[in-house]
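Figure 3 (text version): C-alpha coordinates given as input.
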Protein backbone atom coordinates (compact mmCIF):
# COMPACT_ATOMS: atom_id res chain seq x y z
CA UNK A 1 0.00 0.00 0.00
CA UNK A 2 1.43 3.27 -1.12
CA UNK A 3 0.00 6.80 -0.89
CA UNK A 4 1.47 10.00 -2.24
CA UNK A 5 0.66 13.33 -0.60
CA UNK A 6 1.23 15.94 -3.31
CA UNK A 7 1.93 19.65 -2.99
CA UNK A 8 1.68 20.15 0.74
CA UNK A 9 3.41 22.82 2.80
CA UNK A 10 5.42 21.92 5.88
CA UNK A 11 8.23 22.99 8.17
CA UNK A 12 11.49 21.49 6.94
CA UNK A 13 14.38 20.47 9.23
CA UNK A 14 15.48 24.12 9.42
CA UNK A 15 12.02 25.17 10.52
CA UNK A 16 11.29 26.92 7.22
CA UNK A 17 7.89 26.62 5.55
CA UNK A 18 8.26 25.00 2.15
CA UNK A 19 6.59 22.82 -0.42
CA UNK A 20 6.74 19.08 -0.03
CA UNK A 21 5.54 15.72 -1.33
CA UNK A 22 5.42 12.76 1.04
CA UNK A 23 5.24 9.10 0.09
CA UNK A 24 3.70 6.74 2.62
CA UNK A 25 4.36 3.01 2.21
CA UNK A 26 2.94 0.35 4.53
CA UNK A 27 2.00 2.86 7.20
CA UNK A 28 5.39 4.57 7.31
CA UNK A 29 6.90 7.69 5.84
CA UNK A 30 8.98 6.36 2.97
CA UNK A 31 10.15 9.43 1.09
CA UNK A 32 10.03 13.20 1.58
CA UNK A 33 11.00 15.47 -1.29
CA UNK A 34 10.05 18.67 -3.08
CA UNK A 35 8.89 16.65 -6.04
CA UNK A 36 7.93 12.98 -6.16
CA UNK A 37 6.43 11.28 -9.20
CA UNK A 38 3.31 9.18 -8.72
CA UNK A 39 3.79 5.47 -9.33
CA UNK A 40 1.24 3.51 -11.33
CA UNK A 41 -0.30 1.57 -8.45
CA UNK A 42 -0.24 4.49 -6.08
CA UNK A 43 -3.03 6.64 -4.70
CA UNK A 44 -2.18 10.34 -4.97
CA UNK A 45 -3.84 13.01 -2.83
CA UNK A 46 -3.56 16.59 -4.08
CA UNK A 47 -3.13 18.95 -1.13
CA UNK A 48 -3.11 22.26 -3.02
CA UNK A 49 -0.64 23.81 -0.61
CA UNK A 50 -2.44 22.77 2.55
CA UNK A 51 -0.35 22.49 5.70
CA UNK A 52 1.12 19.13 6.70
CA UNK A 53 1.70 18.57 10.41
CA UNK A 54 2.75 15.56 12.44
CA UNK A 55 -0.44 14.16 13.97
CA UNK A 56 -1.27 15.98 17.20
CA UNK A 57 -0.76 14.32 20.56
CA UNK A 58 -3.06 14.96 23.52
CA UNK A 59 -2.05 13.32 26.78
CA UNK A 60 -5.15 14.49 28.64
CA UNK A 61 -8.45 13.10 27.33
CA UNK A 62 -11.51 11.68 29.10
CA UNK A 63 -13.07 8.92 26.99
CA UNK A 64 -15.49 7.84 29.75
CA UNK A 65 -15.52 4.16 28.83
CA UNK A 66 -16.24 1.99 30.76
CA UNK A 67 -19.16 3.31 32.79
CA UNK A 68 -19.75 6.74 31.27
CA UNK A 69 -20.86 5.77 27.77
CA UNK A 70 -23.66 8.34 27.81
CA UNK A 71 -21.01 11.05 27.86
CA UNK A 72 -18.51 9.47 25.44
CA UNK A 73 -17.08 6.15 24.28
CA UNK A 74 -13.65 5.19 23.07
CA UNK A 75 -15.11 5.11 19.58
CA UNK A 76 -16.79 8.53 19.65
CA UNK A 77 -13.93 10.16 21.56
CA UNK A 78 -11.34 8.78 19.16
CA UNK A 79 -13.37 10.00 16.18
CA UNK A 80 -13.54 13.43 17.78
CA UNK A 81 -9.76 13.25 18.20
CA UNK A 82 -9.27 12.34 14.54
CA UNK A 83 -11.48 15.25 13.50
CA UNK A 84 -9.44 17.58 15.68
CA UNK A 85 -6.20 16.39 14.05
CA UNK A 86 -5.09 14.25 17.01
CA UNK A 87 -3.55 10.89 16.15
CA UNK A 88 -2.44 9.92 19.66
CA UNK A 89 -4.42 10.55 22.83
CA UNK A 90 -4.02 9.31 26.38
CA UNK A 91 -7.17 8.18 28.18
CA UNK A 92 -7.73 9.33 31.75
CA UNK A 93 -8.67 6.65 34.28
CA UNK A 94 -11.62 8.25 36.09
CA UNK A 95 -13.99 5.68 34.62
CA UNK A 96 -16.17 3.04 36.29
CA UNK A 97 -14.52 0.72 36.99
CA UNK A 98 -11.11 2.38 36.99
CA UNK A 99 -8.05 0.80 35.34
CA UNK A 100 -6.36 -0.10 38.61
CA UNK A 101 -5.66 -3.79 37.98
CA UNK A 102 -4.01 -5.74 35.20
CA UNK A 103 -7.40 -7.25 34.29
CA UNK A 104 -9.09 -3.86 33.94
CA UNK A 105 -6.21 -2.46 31.92
CA UNK A 106 -6.24 -5.49 29.62
CA UNK A 107 -9.97 -5.04 29.09
CA UNK A 108 -9.38 -1.39 28.22
CA UNK A 109 -6.54 -2.19 25.83
CA UNK A 110 -8.73 -4.68 23.99
CA UNK A 111 -11.61 -2.27 23.82
CA UNK A 112 -9.26 0.38 22.39
CA UNK A 113 -8.04 -2.07 19.75
CA UNK A 114 -11.60 -2.94 18.77
CA UNK A 115 -13.15 0.52 18.65
CA UNK A 116 -10.61 3.34 18.38
CA UNK A 117 -9.67 5.08 15.13
CA UNK A 118 -6.56 6.77 16.61
CA UNK A 119 -3.78 5.61 18.95
CA UNK A 120 -5.08 5.58 22.51
CA UNK A 121 -2.62 5.24 25.39
CA UNK A 122 -4.28 4.13 28.62
CA UNK A 123 -3.38 5.70 31.94
CA UNK A 124 -3.53 3.53 35.04
CA UNK A 125 -4.55 4.76 38.48
CA UNK A 126 -2.07 5.73 41.16
CA UNK A 127 -4.40 4.44 43.86
CA UNK A 128 -7.09 1.76 43.94
CA UNK A 129 -10.39 3.24 42.68
CA UNK A 130 -8.66 6.61 42.89
CA UNK A 131 -9.46 6.70 46.59
CA UNK A 132 -6.03 8.02 47.48
CA UNK A 133 -5.32 5.26 49.96
CA UNK A 134 -3.67 2.16 48.55
CA UNK A 135 -1.18 2.22 45.71
CA UNK A 136 -2.04 0.07 42.73
CA UNK A 137 0.40 -2.59 41.54
CA UNK A 138 2.68 -0.38 39.42
CA UNK A 139 4.86 -3.24 38.12
CA UNK A 140 1.89 -5.21 36.93
CA UNK A 141 0.21 -2.17 35.36
CA UNK A 142 3.40 -1.11 33.62
CA UNK A 143 3.74 -4.64 32.27
CA UNK A 144 0.12 -4.50 31.03
CA UNK A 145 0.88 -1.33 29.05
CA UNK A 146 0.05 1.62 31.30
CA UNK A 147 1.16 4.89 29.70
CA UNK A 148 1.74 6.62 33.07
CA UNK A 149 0.07 6.82 36.48
CA UNK A 150 -2.55 9.38 37.44
CA UNK A 151 -5.63 9.81 39.61
CA UNK A 152 -6.90 12.66 37.42
CA UNK A 153 -10.29 13.89 38.54
CA UNK A 154 -9.05 14.07 42.12
CA UNK A 155 -5.82 15.14 43.81
CA UNK A 156 -3.74 12.69 45.81
CA UNK A 157 -4.36 14.12 49.27
CA UNK A 158 -1.92 12.15 51.36
CA UNK A 159 1.73 13.22 51.04
CA UNK A 160 2.98 9.84 52.16
CA UNK A 161 0.92 8.08 49.48
CA UNK A 162 2.31 10.50 46.87
CA UNK A 163 5.88 9.94 48.11
CA UNK A 164 5.50 6.16 47.85
CA UNK A 165 3.93 6.51 44.40
CA UNK A 166 6.82 8.63 43.18
CA UNK A 167 9.41 6.21 44.61
CA UNK A 168 7.81 3.31 42.79
CA UNK A 169 7.27 5.23 39.57
CA UNK A 170 10.91 6.41 39.60
CA UNK A 171 12.16 2.85 40.08
CA UNK A 172 10.07 1.76 37.07
CA UNK A 173 11.01 4.82 35.01
CA UNK A 174 7.35 5.86 34.75
CA UNK A 175 5.79 9.30 35.17
CA UNK A 176 3.37 10.47 37.84
CA UNK A 177 0.77 12.75 36.24
CA UNK A 178 -0.99 14.88 38.80
CA UNK A 179 -4.34 16.57 39.14
CA UNK A 180 -3.36 19.14 41.77
CA UNK A 181 -6.15 19.99 44.16
CA UNK A 182 -6.04 20.17 47.94
CA UNK A 183 -9.45 18.98 49.15
CA UNK A 184 -9.39 21.06 52.34
CA UNK A 185 -9.17 24.22 50.21
CA UNK A 186 -11.87 23.55 47.59
CA UNK A 187 -14.40 25.58 49.59
CA UNK A 188 -17.30 23.85 47.77
CA UNK A 189 -16.56 26.19 44.89
CA UNK A 190 -17.76 25.84 41.34
CA UNK A 191 -15.77 28.77 39.93
CA UNK A 192 -12.50 30.54 40.78
CA UNK A 193 -12.40 32.57 43.98
CA UNK A 194 -12.16 36.02 42.43
CA UNK A 195 -14.18 38.79 40.84
CA UNK A 196 -16.80 36.52 39.27
CA UNK A 197 -17.48 34.56 42.45
CA UNK A 198 -17.79 37.81 44.42
CA UNK A 199 -20.11 39.45 41.89
CA UNK A 200 -22.42 36.45 41.79
CA UNK A 201 -22.22 35.53 45.46
CA UNK A 202 -20.76 32.10 44.68
CA UNK A 203 -18.29 30.01 46.59
CA UNK A 204 -14.90 30.12 44.89
CA UNK A 205 -12.00 27.69 44.56
CA UNK A 206 -8.89 29.66 45.58
CA UNK A 207 -5.70 29.54 43.49
CA UNK A 208 -3.77 28.10 46.41
CA UNK A 209 -5.94 24.98 46.25
CA UNK A 210 -3.85 24.02 43.20
CA UNK A 211 -0.46 25.60 43.84
CA UNK A 212 -0.04 24.15 47.33
CA UNK A 213 -0.15 20.63 45.86
CA UNK A 214 2.35 21.48 43.16
CA UNK A 215 4.71 22.98 45.75
CA UNK A 216 4.45 19.82 47.85
CA UNK A 217 4.87 17.53 44.89
CA UNK A 218 7.91 19.16 43.30
CA UNK A 219 9.71 18.63 46.61
CA UNK A 220 8.58 15.00 46.66
CA UNK A 221 9.75 14.67 43.06
CA UNK A 222 13.11 16.12 44.02
CA UNK A 223 13.54 13.66 46.84
CA UNK A 224 12.60 10.67 44.65
CA UNK A 225 13.95 11.83 41.27
CA UNK A 226 10.59 10.97 39.77
CA UNK A 227 9.27 12.50 36.53
CA UNK A 228 6.37 14.53 37.86
CA UNK A 229 3.92 16.02 35.36
CA UNK A 230 1.38 18.70 36.29
CA UNK A 231 -2.06 18.46 34.63
CA UNK A 232 -4.00 21.52 33.47
CA UNK A 233 -1.90 24.18 35.26
CA UNK A 234 -4.06 27.24 35.89
CA UNK A 235 -2.59 29.81 38.28
CA UNK A 236 0.29 32.27 38.26
CA UNK A 237 1.62 30.86 41.53
CA UNK A 238 1.65 27.35 40.04
CA UNK A 239 3.64 28.65 37.07
CA UNK A 240 6.15 30.27 39.43
CA UNK A 241 6.55 27.08 41.47
CA UNK A 242 7.15 25.02 38.32
CA UNK A 243 9.60 27.60 36.97
CA UNK A 244 11.59 27.61 40.22
CA UNK A 245 11.52 23.80 40.38
CA UNK A 246 12.86 23.52 36.82
CA UNK A 247 15.63 25.96 37.69
CA UNK A 248 16.50 23.76 40.65
CA UNK A 249 16.85 20.80 38.27
CA UNK A 250 13.74 18.95 39.44
CA UNK A 251 12.16 16.63 36.86
CA UNK A 252 8.88 18.49 36.53
CA UNK A 253 6.85 19.10 33.37
CA UNK A 254 3.48 20.81 32.90
CA UNK A 255 0.63 21.14 30.45
CA UNK A 256 -1.88 23.94 29.91
CA UNK A 257 -5.30 23.71 28.25
CA UNK A 258 -6.53 25.85 25.35
CA UNK A 259 -9.35 27.20 27.53
CA UNK A 260 -7.06 28.43 30.28
CA UNK A 261 -4.95 30.18 27.62
CA UNK A 262 -7.97 31.70 25.89
CA UNK A 263 -10.26 32.65 28.74
CA UNK A 264 -10.27 34.10 32.24
CA UNK A 265 -13.09 34.60 34.73
CA UNK A 266 -13.61 38.02 33.12
CA UNK A 267 -14.91 36.24 30.00
CA UNK A 268 -17.69 34.32 31.76
CA UNK A 269 -20.81 36.05 30.43
CA UNK A 270 -23.27 34.71 32.99
CA UNK A 271 -23.82 31.80 35.29
CA UNK A 272 -23.33 29.16 32.59
CA UNK A 273 -22.12 25.62 33.26
CA UNK A 274 -20.32 25.49 29.91
CA UNK A 275 -17.77 27.71 31.65
CA UNK A 276 -17.50 25.31 34.57
CA UNK A 277 -14.39 23.18 34.58
CA UNK A 278 -11.75 22.04 36.99
CA UNK A 279 -9.49 23.86 37.52
CA UNK A 280 -11.75 26.87 36.95
CA UNK A 281 -11.07 29.81 34.66
CA UNK A 282 -8.82 32.01 36.79
CA UNK A 283 -8.04 35.74 36.85
CA UNK A 284 -6.61 37.82 34.01
CA UNK A 285 -3.15 37.80 35.65
CA UNK A 286 -3.23 34.01 35.79
CA UNK A 287 -4.17 33.77 32.13
CA UNK A 288 -1.25 36.04 31.26
CA UNK A 289 1.16 34.02 33.42
CA UNK A 290 0.10 30.81 31.64
CA UNK A 291 0.88 32.30 28.24
CA UNK A 292 4.20 33.62 29.54
CA UNK A 293 4.99 30.23 31.07
CA UNK A 294 4.30 28.50 27.77
CA UNK A 295 6.42 31.00 25.85
CA UNK A 296 9.41 30.72 28.20
CA UNK A 297 9.31 26.90 28.40
CA UNK A 298 8.09 26.63 32.00
CA UNK A 299 4.99 24.96 30.59
CA UNK A 300 5.98 22.18 28.21
CA UNK A 301 2.98 21.75 25.95
CA UNK A 302 -0.76 22.01 25.42
CA UNK A 303 -3.32 19.32 26.33
CA UNK A 304 -7.09 19.69 25.98
CA UNK A 305 -8.51 17.97 29.09
CA UNK A 306 -11.40 16.95 26.80
CA UNK A 307 -14.12 16.28 29.40
CA UNK A 308 -17.47 15.44 27.78
CA UNK A 309 -20.70 15.47 29.82
CA UNK A 310 -24.31 15.08 28.71
CA UNK A 311 -26.48 18.13 28.06
CA UNK A 312 -28.83 16.98 30.83
CA UNK A 313 -25.99 16.96 33.36
CA UNK A 314 -24.74 20.34 32.21
CA UNK A 315 -28.25 21.80 32.53
CA UNK A 316 -28.31 21.03 36.25
CA UNK A 317 -27.22 24.58 37.11
CA UNK A 318 -23.79 25.86 38.01
CA UNK A 319 -23.59 24.31 41.49
CA UNK A 320 -24.73 20.84 40.49
CA UNK A 321 -23.45 20.46 36.94
CA UNK A 322 -20.25 18.42 36.63
CA UNK A 323 -16.92 20.15 35.93
CA UNK A 324 -15.50 19.88 32.42
CA UNK A 325 -15.68 20.98 28.80
CA UNK A 326 -14.86 19.24 25.51
CA UNK A 327 -11.74 20.26 23.63
CA UNK A 328 -10.52 17.87 20.95
CA UNK A 329 -12.41 19.29 17.98
CA UNK A 330 -11.74 22.96 18.65
CA UNK A 331 -8.18 23.11 20.03
CA UNK A 332 -6.24 23.82 16.87
CA UNK A 333 -8.59 26.32 15.18
CA UNK A 334 -9.04 28.24 18.44
CA UNK A 335 -5.32 28.47 19.16
CA UNK A 336 -4.37 29.20 15.57
CA UNK A 337 -6.95 31.96 15.18
CA UNK A 338 -6.50 33.65 18.51
CA UNK A 339 -2.75 33.37 18.99
CA UNK A 340 -0.99 32.61 15.69
CA UNK A 341 -3.07 34.91 13.51
CA UNK A 342 -2.67 37.66 16.09
CA UNK A 343 1.11 37.24 16.19
CA UNK A 344 1.28 36.18 19.84
CA UNK A 345 3.08 32.95 19.00
CA UNK A 346 4.05 31.29 15.75
CA UNK A 347 2.55 28.37 13.86
CA UNK A 348 5.83 26.49 14.46
CA UNK A 349 5.51 26.98 18.22
CA UNK A 350 1.88 25.87 18.21
CA UNK A 351 2.67 22.75 16.20
CA UNK A 352 5.59 21.91 18.50
CA UNK A 353 3.37 22.21 21.59
CA UNK A 354 0.90 19.79 20.01
CA UNK A 355 3.44 17.27 18.68
CA UNK A 356 7.16 17.01 19.53
CA UNK A 357 6.93 18.56 22.97
CA UNK A 358 4.44 16.04 24.43
CA UNK A 359 6.27 13.28 22.53
CA UNK A 360 9.60 14.23 24.07
CA UNK A 361 8.11 14.67 27.52
CA UNK A 362 6.69 11.15 27.50
CA UNK A 363 9.28 9.58 25.17
CA UNK A 364 6.70 8.69 22.53
CA UNK A 365 7.94 7.58 19.11
CA UNK A 366 5.48 9.89 17.30
CA UNK A 367 5.38 13.67 16.91
CA UNK A 368 7.67 14.06 13.89
CA UNK A 369 7.43 13.41 10.18
CA UNK A 370 10.67 11.80 9.03
CA UNK A 371 11.67 8.91 6.81
CA UNK A 372 10.99 5.67 8.65
CA UNK A 373 8.56 7.21 11.14
CA UNK A 374 5.01 5.93 11.50
CA UNK A 375 2.80 8.01 9.19
CA UNK A 376 0.63 9.80 11.76
CA UNK A 377 -0.12 12.96 9.81
CA UNK A 378 -2.63 15.79 9.96
CA UNK A 379 -3.51 18.02 7.01
CA UNK A 380 -4.75 21.48 7.90
CA UNK A 381 -6.52 24.06 5.77
CA UNK A 382 -5.16 27.29 7.23
CA UNK A 383 -7.48 29.37 5.04
CA UNK A 384 -10.72 27.61 5.94
CA UNK A 385 -12.96 29.84 8.03
CA UNK A 386 -15.82 28.32 10.03
CA UNK A 387 -17.84 28.93 13.15
CA UNK A 388 -17.69 26.43 15.98
CA UNK A 389 -20.91 24.42 15.97
CA UNK A 390 -21.26 21.75 18.70
CA UNK A 391 -23.94 20.02 16.61
CA UNK A 392 -21.17 19.12 14.16
CA UNK A 393 -18.96 17.51 16.86
CA UNK A 394 -18.26 13.79 16.57
CA UNK A 395 -17.88 13.77 20.35
CA UNK A 396 -21.04 13.00 22.27
CA UNK A 397 -20.16 15.98 24.45
CA UNK A 398 -21.46 19.33 23.23
CA UNK A 399 -20.32 21.17 26.35
CA UNK A 400 -18.16 24.00 25.07
CA UNK A 401 -18.02 27.71 25.87
CA UNK A 402 -16.77 28.39 22.33
CA UNK A 403 -20.03 27.98 20.40
CA UNK A 404 -20.17 30.38 17.42
CA UNK A 405 -16.53 31.46 17.76
CA UNK A 406 -15.30 32.07 14.25
CA UNK A 407 -12.06 30.26 13.57
CA UNK A 408 -9.59 29.92 10.74
CA UNK A 409 -7.38 26.85 10.35
CA UNK A 410 -9.20 23.52 10.45
CA UNK A 411 -7.83 19.99 10.15
CA UNK A 412 -9.23 18.41 6.98
CA UNK A 413 -7.53 14.99 6.87
CA UNK A 414 -6.03 12.77 9.53
CA UNK A 415 -3.80 9.78 8.85
CA UNK A 416 -3.04 7.19 11.52
CA UNK A 417 -0.46 4.57 10.60
CA UNK A 418 -0.68 5.80 7.01
CA UNK A 419 -4.41 5.20 6.89
CA UNK A 420 -6.84 8.04 6.27
CA UNK A 421 -9.09 7.83 9.36
CA UNK A 422 -10.87 11.13 8.97
CA UNK A 423 -11.52 13.46 6.08
CA UNK A 424 -13.66 16.60 6.23
CA UNK A 425 -17.14 15.28 5.66
CA UNK A 426 -16.59 11.63 6.55
CA UNK A 427 -14.97 9.23 9.03
CA UNK A 428 -12.92 6.40 7.51
CA UNK A 429 -13.13 3.73 10.19
N1 LIG B 1 -11.45 18.84 34.06
C1 LIG B 1 -12.69 18.70 34.44
O1 LIG B 1 -13.35 19.71 34.68
N2 LIG B 1 -13.26 17.50 34.58
C2 LIG B 1 -12.65 16.22 34.40
C3 LIG B 1 -11.82 15.83 35.56
C4 LIG B 1 -10.45 16.47 35.62
O2 LIG B 1 -9.79 16.66 34.59
O3 LIG B 1 -9.95 16.71 36.70
C5 LIG B 1 -13.74 15.19 34.16
O4 LIG B 1 -13.45 13.99 34.25
O5 LIG B 1 -14.86 15.58 33.83
ZN1 LIG C 1 -7.89 16.99 36.47
ZN1 LIG D 1 -8.88 15.70 33.20
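Below: residues designed for each position.
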Amino acid sequence: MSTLLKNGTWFNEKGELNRVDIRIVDGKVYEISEHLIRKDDEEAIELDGKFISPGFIDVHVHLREPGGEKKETIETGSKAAAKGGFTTIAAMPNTRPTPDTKEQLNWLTNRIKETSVVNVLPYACITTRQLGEELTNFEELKEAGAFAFTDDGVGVQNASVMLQAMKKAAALDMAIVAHCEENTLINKGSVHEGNFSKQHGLNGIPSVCESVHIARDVLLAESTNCHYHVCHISTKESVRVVRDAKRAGIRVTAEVTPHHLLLSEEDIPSVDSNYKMNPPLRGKADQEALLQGLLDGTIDFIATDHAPHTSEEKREGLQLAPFGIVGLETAFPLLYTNFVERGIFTLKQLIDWLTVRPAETFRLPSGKIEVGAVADITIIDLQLNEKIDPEQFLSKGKNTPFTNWECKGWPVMTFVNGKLVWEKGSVHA
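The longest strand covers residues 377-387.
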